[in-house]
Specification:
Length: 129
């Protein structure tokens, strides 16, 4: 399992502590996204930084992949802007995660699947077809 950030920070088989430190280094400007990829190609990607993040999950299967967006179980459809890679990215308010929730998702992924209480995964695969 490997993590890589926008600025090229590389971590091989990160533990929870090193993963949290890497996420904490995201700043929404020059280091605003990263991904954690398993050997089978499944990955989590995070964008944003400091206090606001958005997280996506890609699950590889024999016929291709499914792509999901982490969404709080309490729905809020209002728009919110997060800075990622120098751009302003619009997401739903219920897709804006704090540092603690973002880390919990990454920790769960390190241990298996990114299933965390308070988060549902919204299928957005159609955006990639």
């Amino acid at each position: 399992m490997n993590y890589e950030s926008e600025i090229g920070e590389l971590l091989s088989n990160p533990d929870k502590n090193s993963m949290e430190l890497a996420i904490r280094r995201l700043n929404g400007k020059g280091n605003s996204y990263g991904s954690l990829t398993k050997a089978n190609g499944d990955y989590l990607q995070v964008g944003g930084g400091i206090k606001e993040f958005t997280v996506e999950f890609r699950k590889i299967h024999k016929n291709g992949f499914k792509h999901f967006k982490a969404t709080k179980t309490e729905e809020n459809l209002e728009s919110h802007i997060i800075k990622i890679g120098g751009s302003k990215v619009t997401v739903r308010e219920d897709q804006v995660l704090d540092l603690q929730m973002t880390c919990q998702i990454f920790f769960a992924f390190i241990e298996g699947e990114p299933d965390v209480e308070g988060i549902k995964w919204v299928d957005m695969t159609s955006m990639f077809e």
